[in-house]
Structure prediction request, 360 residues.
Amino acid sequence: MGRSPCCDKVGLKKGPWTPEEDQKLLAYIEEHGHGSWRALPAKAGLQRCGKSCRLRWTNYLRPDIKRGKFTLQEEQTIIQLHALLGNRWSAIATHLSKRTDNEIKNYWNTHLKKRLTKMGIDPVSHKPKNDTLFCRDGQSKSVANLSHMAQWESARLEAEARLVKQSRLRCSSPTEKMVRSVGESSSASNYKLTTHVSEAPDRCLDILKAWNRVCGNKDGNGNGDSESPTSTISTTGLTECSTNFFELVAGNSSGSCDNENIGEECEEEWKGKDGNQKANSIPDFKGISVPSGNFVESFTDLLLSSSGTSSHQNLQADGDSNVALGSSSVNNSCYDDNNKNYWNNILDLVNSSLPDPPLF
DNA sequence: AAGTGACTCAACCGCGTAACC
DNA sequence: AGGTTACGCGGTTGAGTCACT
Prediction:
C-alpha cells in the first residue's frame, strides 16, 4: 500500500507540456521504450514526474492514438459499453481502439452524458428517468436479468482488457516491436500476443452462447443450475430472460445511413433538425414501444431512424442469425427483439472492435 | 471591441492494488 | 507475512477557447 511520492518532489515541472518536452519524451521512448516510468524523466532529461510522463505518453504522444471528432458508431459504442461497464473507461477504451480512456471519459462527460440527460435518460442507469412509464408487467424481471448479465459480461470484459494490457506491456520494448514488425512470431510471447487478439472474439461468443444454451435448455422447468458465479437472481428469472436470448433477429436495418454522410447527418439526428426539438421530444419518444431494459439501443436507434436510418447496420450480426420471432405479442416481441439486438450488438461490438495488435 | 459565461480537454490528484523486497 | 514502491485508474480541476451579448 501507500501512495507514490513521485510528484511530491520539489523542482518538478507541472502543467502543460512544451513541444521540447514532448520531443524529449518521444525520442526517449522511441529509442528505449518507457521501461520504468519513475526512472524515465531523469534518463530522458525531463523535469517531470514519471506519472506525468506516462500520462502525456498514453493520452497524447502515443502514435496509435486517433484524435478528432468521434464518429457516430464510436458514440454508440461508448453508450452501449457504458451501459454495460459503467465508468470503467479503460475497459471501454479497450474496445475503441485508438481512443484513450481519458478522451472517452471527457467525451462522455461533456457530450454524451448531457445528451442522455437532455432526453430524459439517466446517464448512470441508462434508463428513462421516469422508468415507470416504460415498465410493463414482467419487464422488471428482464431488466434485472439484463443487469445481471451485464455484471457477468462486465467481469469478462475487464479480464480481457487486462490481458490486452499485459500484451501491450510485454511488447513495450523497441526490440520486440522489431520482431513483430518482421512478422515472424518467433517467440512464444509474440505468438501468444497475436493469437490472443484473434481468438478473443470466439472465446467471447463461446461464453455467451454457452450461457444461452444453459439457460435456454432449462426450458422453464427450473432444471439445471445456470447461475453465474456472481448471480443472485433466481433461476426462474434467468429462464424467462434468456430463452433464445442470443438468437439473432433478422435486421430491422431496413433504412440506411449513407456512409459518406453518416457523420454529419447522424449528428443532425442526434441534435434534432431544429436544434433541441428532438432532444426534448420525450412524448414522441415514449410514443414508440421502448423497453426500459434495452433503452440504450432503442434510443440510439431512435436517433438514427427518423430518416429511415438504422444504427444497426454496422453492428448487426451476420448471416447465421436465427430468426426467433412471431411467437409473442406485438409488445413482447418488440421488447424481445430489442433485447436481442442490444446484446447482439454488444457481442458484435466486442468481436469487431478488439484492439489492433499493440504497437508498443 | 470588450465582457462574460459556457464549454472543452489536457493534466493533476488521490486511491486501490499488483509487484517486489 | 507484512511493508514498501510503482503503476494504472477514475474523478476533478483549471487554463484556453468559443459563443453570445
Observations:
- The CA atoms of residues 205 and 347 of chain A lie 7 Å apart.
- Residues 139-170 of chain A form the longest helix (32 residues).
- The two ends of chain A are 29 Å apart (CA to CA).
